[in-house]
Specification:
The protein is mostly helical and 411 residues long. It contains eleven helices and eleven strands. 35% of the residues lie in helices and 7% in strands. Helix 2 packs across helix 10, helix 8 packs parallel to helix 9 and helix 9 packs antiparallel against helix 10. It comes from Parachaetomium inaequale. This is Tyrosinase.
């Protein structure tokens, strides 16, 4: 059942065949690789609307004699990774390494594979994977997850900046050459070493019908040998889904030390996370449709930018949905996931404010993975459980990035 559900949603690669790497296709004019002015306009509109909203809230609270927590004066901004100075990129990288050097809070009896504070976050994700994807809690859960990671970098590792994001279309032709992954001392480490291979193949579950879906390969797939995370040891997982790597012990929670691998490349990035994709996402009318564009359509090649970028990272643990936070690249990908949701929410302010309360009613809005088995709709009071990684909260507390404990937006 679990395997079928995973396969059904197109997120688990089950076969990798030997072959030659695809060449990046030459780009046409309307291929989504050039930033349209319309997109810039949308983003500017979102920023203007959130600023107005914060100011209005502040005024209303002050009239009632209350002091607002989040104002335009203390609002902080998360930035695109490549726009950070080299010094700031290095500070981020060093904070991640610091988190990887601190002892875990997860008891060895729960996850003997957890060897660091960084691993605490990976454990929490592994344990809850089937409840926190294609479910109503998906977006809020990952928002709080990234926020708590950012908080750990700051509070426990002296990082003075904020969580950067990976603006997917910006480097879509060759993410391996971007400031994030070019392997220089300010990157998140380079691509994996190139080993000839084909891309992942998604096999529909028995009885569903349909052809196998072949996804494009990256231009790596071997060990990461350049940049700050060269030779990084991955301790946990994989749980499943990696054709060339056996599952780790204890359902991925056991100790399974091995080198970090990646399979970055432009083909997957261009196909699933270009400017057209982002524009389409930001213009969806409601959260159900937003999530279909973001997370994809079951049994089809439309795996959406969420899965598309997870597969763009690929490798190990990046290609394993459960263990994917064990690659530092996960956090900039989910930074962008949260950024786009944040922008989309702000764009709805002009009409009504339901984007901060409406969790939808589609098949991705329930408490189980794509509502399999059938379950009630997620509710605002539902708990977001961070396990041993960080304090828990409720969905309601994180629906706005300028409410509750949160006070951030994106540049
Ligand atoms: C799909 O891939 C699986 C695993 O490689 C293979 O057994 C099966 O024959 C393929 N099905 C089709 C329709 O090509
Ligand atoms: C990675 O490990 C290999 C052998 O284990 C070593 O030769 C190499 O210098 C290491 N690279 C870095 C950047 O630490
Ligand atoms: C860009 O993304 C759109 C929608 O996600 C997709 O249909 C299109 O094929 C992509 N463009 C390229 C060049 O792959
Ligand atoms: C308010 O938001 C809801 C939910 O997204 C939507 O269905 C409705 O049409 C919106 N109402 C107006 C007046 O924009
Ligand atoms: Cu996740």
């Amino acid at each position: 059942m679990k395997a079928a559900a995973l396969l059904a949603t197109g997120l688990v690669a089950v076969a990798v065949h030997a072959g030659v790497p695809p060449r990046d296709a030459p780009a046409a004019a309307d291929d989504g690789l050039t930033k349209p002015q319309d997109l810039d306009d949308l983003i500017e509109k979102a920023k203007a609307q959130i600023t107005d909203e914060i100011n209005e809230n502040e005024e209303a609270l002050r009239k009632r004699g209350e002091t607002p927590r989040c104002t335009v004066r203390n609002l902080i901004f998360r930035r695109e990774y490549g726009s950070l100075s080299k010094e700031d990129r290095l500070a981020y990288v060093n904070a991640v390494k610091c988190l990887q050097s601190k002892p875990p809070r997860t008891p060895a009896s729960v996850a003997p594979g957890a060897k660091s504070r960084f691993d605490d976050f990976v454990v929490t994700h592994i344990q809850q994977t089937l409840a926190i994807h294609y479910s109503g809690v998906f977006q809020p859960w990952h928002r709080w997850f990234v926020y708590q990671y950012e908080k750990a970098l700051r509070d426990e590792c002296g990082y003075a900046g904020y969580q950067p994001y990976w603006d997917w279309p910006l480097y879509a032709r060759a993410p391996q050459d971007s400031p994030l992954f070019n392997g220089d001392p300010y990157s998140l480490g380079g691509n994996g070493e190139y080993i000839p291979h084909d891309g992942p193949v998604i096999v529909p579950p028995p009885g569903v019908g349909g052809d196998n879906i072949s996804l494009p390969a990256g231009v790596g797939s071997g060990l990461v040998k350049t940049g700050p995370f060269a030779n990084m040891t991955v301790n946990l997982g994989p749980v499943g889904g990696l054709a060339d790597t056996a599952p780790g012990p204890l359902g991925g929670l056991g100790y399974n030390p091995r080198g970090l691998k990646r399979d970055l490349g432009g083909a997957m990035n261009m196909r699933y996370a270009n400017y057209t994709t982002v524009f389409r996402l930001l213009t969806q009318p409601n959260v159900d449709q937003y999530r279909v564009v973001s997370e994809g359509v079951p049994y089809t090649p439309e795996i959406g930018p969420h899965g598309g970028i997870h597969y763009t990272i690929g490798g190990d643990p990046g290609g394993d949905l459960f263990t994917s936070p064990g690659d530092p690249a996960f956090w900039v990908h989910h930074g962008q996931m949260d950024r786009l949701w944040t922008l989309w929410q702000a764009l709805g302010l002009a009409d009504n404010k339901t984007r901060y309360t409406d969790l939808g009613s589609g098949s991705y809005a329930h408490r189980t993975w794509a509502n399999q088995p059938a379950s009630p709709l997620a509710e605002l009071g539902d708990v977001i459980d961070m396990g041993y990684a960080a304090p828990s909260t409720t969905i309601e507390e994180v629906m706005s990035t300028t409410g509750g404990e949160l006070c951030y937006f994106y540049l």
